[in-house]
């Protein structure tokens, strides 16, 4: 009799319903024909997967997904990289939403049993301290400012993820109203762009922050990135866009009031902004420096 395959559940215990969520997730994975190990992403050495692991199930939000992929991408070239299944249990879940991944146990079981692999691209970053890749996006201007300010917001009275998203969206509107644009110079696939920007975002997925769709056509499996450039002239239109429903139930996105550029090869950029975000991590640059981004195609296997 053939032994069951081995899965490792990597769980952020602060996401979802704690131990109850853990038990439900383990049972769902076992019901798909796997032996299942469990580890909290808050534990030491949580990323030391057994060599027999064929599936890593990541239960958490966007930050947890990045944390897991960051560790897996550090593994040696000859180390076997398991396929990844996602159970989105965070606040925004932007990565999972772009891929259409369900935040339900039946959805997780369908993904595992169906085993349809999608090869995920990442953005490789050059000349930035402390980091070398992004999964979702990176950029200057409004978004890193929002991330920084949300770290000081009192969330003790927030009861649901919808309330937290609404609070963050309102904070972004507030920041946008008086944010000062700064000069940026970009070269995208050999074409030069220079202006003063409120926001410069290089995106691998459609939405960032509180589910704000900046690149409706972005797909992390197509070997391309997208750049969103928001100028002063688009400030009021952007505020109106944020005030509207930015992910309508019809599935159709309103026309974005800023410039979006498809990237097939690489980007170099230098911006006067000193604060940079890479996914949900903030980096303070000492000076305006040249940053290079290239596409690394299909290096992570995600089942959907």
From TrEMBL:
GO terms for molecular function: kinase activity. This is Diacylglycerol kinase. Gene3D superfamilies: 2.60.200.40, Probable inorganic polyphosphate/atp-NAD kinase, domain 1 (3.40.50.10330). Residues 57-129 form the DAGKc domain. The keyword Nucleotide-binding applies. It holds the Pfam family YegS_C. Keywords: ATP-binding, Kinase, Nucleotide-binding, Transferase.
């Amino acid at each position: 009799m053939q032994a069951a395959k081995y899965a490792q559940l990597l769980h952020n215990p602060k996401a979802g319903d704690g131990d109850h969520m853990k038990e439900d997730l383990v049972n769902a994975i076992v019901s798909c024909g796997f032996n299942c190990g469990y580890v909290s992403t808050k534990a030491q050495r949580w990323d030391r997967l057994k060599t027999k692991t064929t599936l890593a199930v990541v239960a958490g939000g966007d930050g947890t997904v990045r944390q897991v992929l960051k560790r897996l991408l550090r593994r040696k070239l000859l180390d076997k990289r398991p396929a990844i299944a996602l159970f989105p249990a965070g606040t925004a879940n932007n990565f999972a939403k772009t891929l259409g991944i369900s935040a339900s146990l039946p959805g997780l079981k369908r993904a595992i049993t169906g085993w349809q692999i999608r090869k995920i691209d990442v953005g490789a970053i050059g000349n930035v301290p402390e980091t070398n890749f992004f999964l979702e996006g990176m950029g200057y201007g409004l978004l890193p400012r929002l991330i920084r300010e949300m770290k000081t917001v009192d969330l003790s009275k927030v009861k649901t993820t919808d309330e937290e998203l609404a609070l963050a969206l309102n904070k972004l509107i507030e920041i946008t109203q008086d944010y000062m644009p700064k000069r940026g110079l970009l070269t995208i696939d050999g074409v030069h762009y220079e202006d003063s920007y409120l926001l410069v975002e290089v995106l691998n997925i459609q939405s960032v922050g509180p589910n704000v769709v900046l690149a409706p056509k972005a797909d992390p499996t197509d070997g391309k990135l997208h750049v969103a450039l928001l100028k002063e002239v688009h400030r009021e239109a952007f505020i109106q866009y944020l005030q509207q429903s930015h992910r309508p139930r019809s599935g159709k996105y309103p026309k974005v009031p800023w410039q979006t550029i498809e990237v097939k090869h690489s980007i170099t950029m230098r911006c006067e902004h000193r604060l940079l975000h890479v996914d949900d991590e903030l980096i303070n640059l000492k000076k305006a420096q040249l940053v290079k981004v290239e596409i690394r195609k299909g290096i992570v296997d995600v089942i959907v």
